[in-house]
Recover the amino acids of this structure.
């Protein structure tokens, strides 16, 4: 099972999913299998209406500082403008935070978001 093969030791993990697939279930299985004590974990889709008014950075910062959430599972991150820069800023500013994100394979991590290419451990999914 793929969910058990994903390693969460890195602070930043990317799951590259093929186009026309969804990894919502996979992300939730990873949380269940790898983080059974998931009190400080949150899963969300970047498509939520909240991100029309709040930046990803502000959202993560608020949840971390106010509620102690330190592990974030973000689905469909490729649909958020400037996600690479905001994730980089979270990575650099909050060393206690871990982020697992999924994005579509037609997005190029190295080409579009060079700052993340050496920070993130990337898993390419079939």
């Amino acid at each position: 099972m793929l969910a058990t093969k994903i390693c969460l030791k890195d602070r930043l993990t990317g799951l590259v999913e093929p186009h026309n697939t969804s990894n919502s279930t996979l992300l939730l299985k990873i949380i269940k299998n790898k983080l059974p004590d998931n009190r400080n974990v949150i899963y969300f889709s970047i498509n939520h209406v909240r991100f029309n008014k709040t930046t990803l950075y502000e959202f993560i910062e608020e949840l971390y500082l106010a509620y102690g959430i330190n592990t974030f599972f973000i689905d469909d991150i490729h649909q958020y403008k400037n996600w690479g820069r905001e994730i980089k800023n979270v990575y650099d500013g909050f060393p206690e935070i871990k982020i697992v994100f999924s994005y579509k394979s037609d997005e190029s991590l190295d080409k579009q978001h060079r700052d993340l290419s050496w920070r993130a451990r990337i898993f390419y999914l079939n």
In short: Residues 56-67 form the longest helix (12 residues). The chain has one domain: 2-124.
